[in-house]
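ok here's 8-oxo-dGTP pyrophosphatase MutT (NUDIX family), seq below lol
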Amino acid sequence: MHCLGYNRVFVFILTMPMQDQLITLLNAHQASNATEAAHLRQALEFISSTANCCSRSTQAGHVTASAWILSPDRQAALLTHHKKLNRWLQLGGHTEDGDTNIQDAAAREAREESGIADLQLISSALFDVDVHPIPARANEAAHYHYDLRFLFQARHIHFEVSDESHDLAWVPLAKLVQEDDNASVSRMAGKCLGNI
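and the structure came out like this:
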């Protein structure tokens, strides 16, 4: 699927409980390769069988919401050098109790981490799905993030670095698609360049 194509997700989804919204979004998503297809199956299985799938108190793992943010010219993506994970990643994070849908959670996280208030959601459909382990820390056991990603576009290139990041940067998609150490970032860049 080309990332600039339009995917239609019906508005009635937003009136469903969060767990049902997530299942509907996942069932409508077309994985781009075998790795993403495996993540999609894992996410569907977890969300379908876990009533509190978005809660951080669910120790095995939980749903997270991310934003793949394109530059105004759609030639670069905004990445954060994440403090806790010490890696360059898309912006995103945990859902909160007041979140009524996963798209708004992704937008909220992106605004908090970038200071960009006027992000445009390109499509309410899922852009990418990734399941990845989070290592144990002093106050948290190892667990999984079932990360649901949405496609956004910034209206300008100005950002502010939050206390959750070492830095932020606009990175050309052509460079990201060649990333060997982060397959999910490379996959999302490839979708935007039509390489997948």
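fwiw The chain has one domain: 11-134+144-193. kinda neat tbh
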